[in-house]
Structures are given as C-alpha cells and as structure tokens.
Amino acid sequence: MTVLASIADLSVTYRRAPRAALSGLSLDIKAGEILAIIGESGSGKSTLARAIAGLLPERTNVAGRIDWPGLDGAPRAGRDIGYVFQDPGSSLNPVLRLGEQVGEGARRHLGLDRRAGEMEAVRLLGRVHLPEPERIARAYPHQLSGGQRQRVAIAEAIAARPRLLIADEVTSALDVLVQAAIVELLVELVRADGMTLVFVTHDLALASGIADRVAVMAGGRLVEVGPAAEVVAAPRATETAALIAAHIDLATPPLVGGAP
Amino acid sequence: MSFLRRLVSSPTGALGMVLLGVIAATALLAPWLSPGDPLRIAGPALLPPFTDPALPFGTDRLGRDVLAGLLHGARTSLIVGLAAAAAAVLIGSVVGTIAGFAGRLVDEALMRVVDAFQIVPGFLLALAFVSVAGGSLGTVILAIALSAWAQPARLVRAEVLSIRERDYVAAARVIGMHPLEIAFKEILPNALPPVLALAAVIVAAAILTEAALSFLGLGDPNVVTWGSMISEGRNVLRAAPFLSVIPGIGLVAAVLGVYLVSEAAGEALGRGGRP
Amino acid sequence: MTGPLLIAHDLRRTFTSGGRRVAALDGVSLAIAPGETLGLVGGSGCGKSTLARVLTRLVAPEAGSIAFMGDDWLALGGGRLRTARRHLQMVFQDPLAAFNPRATVGGVLADALRIHAVVAKAERAGEVARLIDRVGLPSDLLGRSIREISGGQRQRVAIARAIAVRPRLVILDEAVSALDVSVRGRILELLVDLQRETGVGYLFISHDLAVVRAVSHRIAVMAAGRIVEEGPAASVIAAPSSGVLKDLIGAVPRLNGKPA
C-alpha cells in the first residue's frame, strides 16, 4: 500500500500546559486503510487526530513533521481531510438547516452552484442512510436524535470527497445499538469511495472489529502499532495488555452468581 | 498569570485601577490629609484655586475649603456607592433565588413585584423615597438599593432556572437536602458570577444617583458630598466655575474607574477562566 | 426484611416533545429483592432514565404505584420523604455534573452524613475518612476540589456519597458509561464488594449489556417505555426472546473478531 501521510517525531504541547500532549510520535498512514488509534482519556489520541487535520489551536507548540506523499502538496483545509467530532451537538450549527450545512462543503470545494449544492446535500443525507433525506435537509439539528445527528456530521465530512476521513470518538456519546450502526456506516463509506479512515476510540474491541491496523497510545506516546488481529492476540506493550485485560464482553465471567 | 496580574496588564485595567486606587486612597486617608470638619469656614469666600498654597483648590461661597470637600466627598461617594450596590445585589439575589427555585405561583408573584420596581424610573423612585423618609446617609443608601435591585433579581432568577436542571441539584434532592439549603448553598453561589459583573455597573450608577440626590438638596445635609458641592457651585457658575467643575471631575474619575476595572475584570475572567 | 425491597407497578409517564405526546413509561412494573442487582438495559429513548427519575421521585409518574421497604413510596412528602430518601440513593452518569462545582471531596461526604445524622457530629470526620478509604481513594483527596480529580476518582466519590447514608437500594444510571475502559472493571468490582459487605440492592441501568451482565443477578430489557423481557441474567442472555435483546447482544463489541 502507498503511504498517504508520514508522521515523523511529532511532539505537541498545548499553550500553558505543564506536560507534552504528544511526544516523539512517528507513524505512517497507508492509503485506503482503516487505522484505529486507541487510548484512554489523556493518552493524546485526539491531539494526534487534530494535529493530522491541522486543527490544533493557535500558538500550540508543535515539533516534528507530517508529510503527505499521497497528496500533491499539503492537504487543503476542508477538502482533503474530513473530520467527524465526538459531539454532533456542537459540530453542527444549531441555527442553520441541515441541508445548508451539508451542502456547504460540496459547494465550496466542488464548485457547485446553489441548486446543485442542495441536490448534492440530499444525496449525501441519503448516502448515510437517513430516511426521507429531503425532509431532513430542511430540518434543524435539534430535531434529530444523537445517532441521526452523527450521520449528518459524517455526511458533512465527506461532502467535499476527501481522501482521508478522521472519526474522533464518534461513537462514545452513543448507545451500543447506534454505535454499531454508525461504525458499519463508516466502513461502508470508506470501502466504497476508497477513502482512508483514521478511527479514534477508547474501545479496543470496537476498533478490532473494523480496523486493518491498530495504533495504541498512552501518555502521549505511541506504544504499539500493528495489524489488529496480531495486536489483540499477542500484545507487546503493557498498556495494550492492560486494555485487553480490562475488556468486558458477554464471554467475561460475571462478578456475581445467580442470586444474591 | 493570576487574575490580578491579568487585570493590570491591559491598558483598560491599569488605568481603571489607578483611578480607583487614587480615589479609594483619598477616601480612606481624608481625615489625615485634611483634618477637621470640611464644612467649617477655612478662609475668605470665593478664593480662586492655585492662589493660596494652604487652600490649593480655593474656597466656596461660604469660605469652605474645596480640597477638603473633594477629599471627604470621595468617602461619601464610595461608601454610598458600595453599600447601595451591595444591598441591591443582596436583595436581588435573595428574591431571584426564591423566585427561580420555588417556581409557579411564588415565581409569578415575585416577578410582578420586580416588574413594578423596574417600571418606575430608578432615579424617581430613589427621589420619592428620600423625600418621604428624610435625607440621611442610611435612607439614601436604601433608596438607591430599592431603585437598583430589580435587575440583579432577574439575572439571578435566570441563572437559577438553568442551574435547577443540573445533575448536582438532582443529586442534592436525592440525598435529602432541605430545599432551602439547596437553594442557598448549592444554587445561589453558582448563580452569582453574572450578577457580580452587573454589580460594578450598579456601583457606578449608585455614585451618580447619590450625587444627583445631593445636588437636589435631598441628601444628608451634615455630610459633604460631591453632589452638594456641585449644587452649591451652581449659583456662581459664571463667576467661579471651578466650584462645580472640580467635584464634577471627581465624579467622572470615580465612575470611569469603576467601569474600566469591571471591563478589564470581565476580560481577565473570560480569557483565563473557562477551560 | 422479608419480601421485595422495591415493587413498581404499572408506572406511566408521558412527555410532550415537538408537539407530540411521547410515552416515556408505558406501564412499567418490576421488583427488586433485598441485596439483589437488577440490571436494566435498553437503547437510548427506551425510558430507562425516566424510570430512574421516577423511582427517585425527581419526576412524578402519572399513574402507577411504588412500594419501597413496604411503604407507599409515592405517598411520602416533605420532611418524611427527605428522611426516607436515605434508603434510596442514586449515582449519576456524568461524574462531573453530579457535583456542585465548588464542592470538595470531603465536603460532599460530610454533607451527606450531616443531613441524615448518620453518625454523631464528633465522629463525622472519622466516618468520612472511613468512606473515602472504603472506595479505594487516598485520604489526601479529601481537601481537593471535585474538579481537580479524575473521572474515575469522581465516580468513586459519588459511590461513597451514595453509600454514606447506608441505603437499602442504589440506582446506578449509566454509572460507568463515561469512564475509561480500564477504570470500569475496578468500579464494578467495588460495587459488587460493597453489595457483599452491606447487602445493598442495585438497580443497574445501562445501554451496555456486557457491563450489566457482569454485575446483575437478573436482567430486565426495556423498549419504548415497557419491559419486554426479564429473567435471571445467564438464562436471558443465553436464550433471548425479544428482538431488542437479540440486537443488544449482537451489538456488544468482541475482541478479535467482528460482532456477530
């Protein structure tokens, strides 16, 4: 696989922060792969995602480099990288109709006029499997459920047909049923369009179900990276082993017996 | 950077702190800077300023020392300003908290009272109160507080309505906390920040209202205030404008100082406050 | 005591949302035995949070009855309700929002002890120290502000606050959902330990079936304001009859493979 982005020795320290959020991180993102970035809160995974997308706040201390051999030149804002945030409530503008917001990316980056942009917005809303996309295009964010809003946010992120889609903890605020559906949607979209997906999450099991490769982070450092099945079957880093041990599913022996 | 450092680092904050600092200092030190009764006769009448080194700002129609009046007047203005604002915020906070927390009929009833106080122009209300209750420092403070408490009440009520829905208030109810304790210990302290920002404006308005009441002769006649000095100077405005201008400058400096500091404080809180 | 700790019968509650009446609770009945953990699962919008709020008397039901410790729970009011509340406590989902932003760890626990006069005033400090130790936190946390400690630590303080008043039943509403994976297991172990030690009952509400399975003796499944399935935890999971439960089982992420 060709390399889409190459991160070399990246270190990030936020303004007025006592410690580095990322230190000395080196990682390649391969074109067309699904790469999961796993870590607990404070591990630096969201910082890494934002650094890749160029979304770090001004005056943040950044050292190291990110090269983009898979693109012609540096990524264009809003065009080459799509970003989906954890909280759809705050990533969608509450006073704009959804069709307008979703169509914005397409209009701006694909040069569509207003009418074509509207039609493209409806098409995108249908693509993310929202029922009655014309009605949704005229609706406002508060009229939808959390899962539906997240689908809209995904539609907005892919509107400009980016090469890379970054999903930053997009399922953490959703219940398991909706979570599974959103994850399925993301996989379907990236496979169909040949996009690269960087999937940031704290849930190793969720990631291992869809990812080609898994990168595990802890304390701002990359502690392990490799094919998902291998990392889960034979973890090399203690942090990875701890995450695996802490995983609870239906096969885990319960803590209580049949009756009190 | 601590809050104070941020406050003085901006030009607004620095200037405001200087103005307020000077005025507060003169208010505190007045009895030592200018000992004796400021209302006593100190020299010949209508002495122009900068002619006699012992009376640098001259004298008024009765021969009273203008500088002494300026310094002691600062005390009155600040005391009345701060006390009235504190009383207004206190009354407003209590009423606003009860209205917001109790809801329904109690809320409706209290809000109609707040409406009534807001409809009457503040100054006229203070005027009416002082006319009826007599002019003393206490009634002046109370009058201004009555004219100013309605806005803090609304602000606190709005905050309380929002905070009431938060999980920690629910947690307090589940634990079995008494409603009064929830209202005044859990909710009110968290509802105060916007009101404190308003408090600065109330202080400035209170200083001006007090000056206006004194100007009309309705204040405390035994205390020298900038307003009464301006009023005195009115009669000889053409011949000796300095009698009104000098205390007027004092008022401008005080109000400007309060506004500048509250602006800078708001900025300092906003920039550093939220995570 | 003999007989069930809590019996809820035919609880009903509607809300108006967007001009429509929605039945959040549509005839919910359940029972919890002393010292038992009843797990309550369902997707978002199924009514489980409304049920928690109705049981804790934060919201009034429109119909139905609740018998708690043999008394008519809904008939209590004023001072008698406040006193009786000590036996029915709750732990909330968002540990940060569940505390007064100005609170300190020690202050929160002291308040709970004071309100119900659990111990004499002179012994309060000692009891606070005992509680903080019981939930596995160091005593130097007592003077710290609630905002300074981590999410997992905060939830331990929330549990300490709930058990400080020695309740018979604690409702846990998505109590571990906002916590890191590695922290969840330890909190669940703490809860199970406390139950063994004190005989407290739990109503454990979550959308995460795996977590519920780990700590529950019996499981009830909610959908659209009703209980659609109920039974001993192991049997219900092994042989689900309702569509909702089957979906929930399927949505649990498993390590090393795609969810079934």
Proportion in β-strands of chain B: under 5%
For the largest beta-sheet of chain A, the strand count, sense and barrel status come to: 6 strands, mixed
Please tell me how large the radius of gyration of chain A is: 19 Å
* H/E element order of chain A: EEEHEEHHHHHEHEHEEHH
Strands of chain B, total number? 0
Kindly state the percentage of residues in helix of chain A. Answer: 25-40%
Beta content of chain A comes to 15-25%
Shape of chain B: elongated
- The CATH topology name of the largest domain in chain A reads Rossmann fold
The number of strands of chain A is 9
Strands side by side in the biggest sheet of chain A: 5-6-7-3-8-9
What is the mean pLDDT of chain A?
Answer: 90
**CATH homolog superfamily of chain B:** MetI-like
Total discrete domains of chain A: 2
* Distance N to C terminus of chain B: 14 Å
Radius of gyration of chain B: 22 Å
User: Ranges of chain B with pLDDT <50 over ≥5 residues?
Assistant: 271-275
What does this structure look like?
The complex is a heterotrimer of chains A (260), B (275) and C (260). By secondary structure, chain A is an alpha/beta fold. Chain A has helices at 45-53, 88-91, 98-110, 114-127, 133-138, 146-158, 176-193, 204-208, 228-233, 238-246; strands at residues 3-13, 22-30, 34-38, 61-67, 81-84, 164-168, 196-201, 213-218, 221-227. Chain A folds into two domains: 1-46 and 56-71 and 163-248, P-loop containing nucleotide triphosphate hydrolases (Rossmann fold); 92-159. In chain A, the strands form two sheets. A six-stranded mixed β-sheet of chain A has the order 5-6-7-3-8-9, with helices on both faces. In chain A, strands 2-1-4 form a three-stranded antiparallel β-sheet, covered by helices on one side. In chain A, strand 1 and strand 2 form a beta hairpin. In chain A, helix 4 (114-127) packs across helix 6 and helix 6 packs parallel to helix 7 (176-193). Chain B has a single domain (3-273), classed as MetI-like (MetI-like fold, Orthogonal Bundle), CATH 1.10.3720.10. Helix content of chain B is 75%, strand content 0%. The model of chain B is unreliable at 271-275 (pLDDT under 50). In chain C, helix 3 (105-115) packs across helix 4 (124-134), helix 4 (124-134) packs across helix 5 and helix 5 packs parallel to helix 6 (181-198). In chain C, the strands form two sheets. A six-stranded mixed β-sheet of chain C has the order 6-7-8-3-9-10, sandwiched between helices. Chain C contains nine helices and ten strands. Chain C has 260 residues and is an alpha/beta fold. In chain C, 48% of the residues are buried. Chain B binds chain C through residues 166-168, 170-178, 186, 189-190, and chain C through 53, 56-58, 81-83, 85-86, 88-90, 92, 94, 97-103, 111-112, 115-116, 161, 165.
